[in-house]
Amino acid sequence: QCPGIEPLCLDVSDWDAAEAALGAAGPFELLVNNAAVAELQPFLEVTRGALQRSLDVNFGAVLHISQIVARQMIAQGVPGAIVNVSSQASQRALRDHAVYCSTKSALDMLSKVMAMELGPHKIRVNTVNPTVVMTDMGRINWSDPQKSAAMINRIPLGKFAEVDDVVNSILFLLSDKSAMTTGSSLMVDGGFLVS
């Protein structure tokens, strides 16, 4: 469907592997950072391993991969766009999501700093902040009808997001139709944050 896109399979938390793979793959004009883990644990039971893995994937990988790609964009002297996939959980506390909420909040702020520092190079940086999305991970974490009903009841549109809802928002932020948008968070939450 997308002939100009070549997926790279790698452990994004492995900085050396990311450097090698992306260094050989450029040049880039667009980047979507979408990798994430959600290891749900109550605050009092958060393990060091879950914390480190979440920081490495949800925050550290985005920082490092964005550095690699942005340096290439700057070297080419072409404008670019970066979209970091965050979450509504970056702005609203959720039970058993202490680490996930925190890493997504950190991602939102990183994106704002990136927007400020990369703007002079004509590189825009934004986040998309979806509600629960019906991916494989979303289905695993929200398969309990009681748990999902409580969340859906807080979403004015009364449903979780589908993958296309998020993809279309990302495509907008990558496109010239959002040429004056940077440092912003686009909520794809069905109104969750206003409820």
UniProtKB/TrEMBL annotation:
It comes from the Eukaryota. InterPro entries: L-xylulose/Carbonyl_redctase, NAD(P)-bd_dom_sf, Sc_DH/Rdtase_CS, SDR_fam. GO terms for biological process: glucose metabolic process; xylulose metabolic process. Keywords: NADP, Oxidoreductase. SUPFAM superfamilies: NAD(P)-binding Rossmann-fold domains. The keyword Oxidoreductase applies. One of its GO terms (molecular function) is carbonyl reductase (NADPH) activity. PANTHER family: D-ERYTHRULOSE REDUCTASE, D-ERYTHRULOSE REDUCTASE-RELATED. Belongs to the short-chain dehydrogenases/reductases (SDR) family. Homotetramer. This is DER reductase. It comes from Scytalopus superciliaris. The lineage of its organism: Eukaryota, Metazoa, Chordata, Craniata, Vertebrata.
